[in-house]
Structure prediction request, 328 residues.
Amino acid sequence: MAPHGGSAHTDGPWYRTYVVVWFWLLVITVLEVGAVAVTLPRALLVTLLVVLSLMKAALIVAYFMHLRYERLNFIFAVLAPAILIVVLVAGVAPDGVNAVLLRR
Amino acid sequence: MEQVGQVVQRTEEQVLEPSPWGGGQSPFAVSWPKLMMWLFLLSDALTFAALLSGYMVARLTAGVWPHQAAIFNVTFVVGPMTFILICSSATMAVAVGAARRGERRLVVRYLLLTVLGGLAFLGMQAYEWTHFIREGGRLTGWAGHVPEGVLPPGAAMPAMFPATFFVTTGFHGAHVTSGVIYLLVKAVQAARGRASAESVEIAGLYWHFVDLVWVFIFTMLYLI
Prediction:
């Protein structure tokens, strides 16, 4: 029972979006593991991994959690508090950075 | 484009039904249960952000940190765990889509698949914890000898390494466990025709969030 909603514009079945997102999540995961396996400069590796995780997070929130299809007002209301996470990290990071600098 | 059409349709229904807005329109065009789940997830996101930023500071402060690849089996345990959780998120998304389309049997099938993924994840997590504890990991530090190649020669194991590992993955595992129970209840309700499409969607929000958190835990604890 695979209903093919959608027109002749190669829309595919209704679950097509989920399959595509699933595929890309796996590809990015493989890229992450691959980036660790290949010897890269530490700073580059960390930056790359953080960017790739954020990409995965964006895919999950936008398509699996359907945020992309909500009203813009709601999208902003949900995403705005995420600034608090940045504030949190910015608040505690100096402790770690100072520890590193003091050891030098 | 069908999906978008359906969302619009739902919105109209909500606007048309008598609402607490007293004739006004809901500013977000989402129902209360869904809005509250999002709010809960935001607070939960901050909980995990606190755990992970604490981990970051602990790790930078420790000076030495174990070579993760020497302790965790990313290829055969943690990698597959991540793979399973992503797949379970995809099956959950299909369950939500099926609920929207009113295909009850499909909903039950995919909810149970999602539960199966969650259980497989938890089983592997249990295996990993067992292995880690046998090696010497404790909540308060490291017991016994540190295996070869884990630390630079002469360095002591930072107590924060096992501590942050247990607390962070434990918190996440507790979320997965709750999620499995939540989805099992939903599956039973759906099988009896008592689960609204929206309640399945809200359960889905929770499950995807658990996957979302794992994305960051996987990256920070095992890869970086």
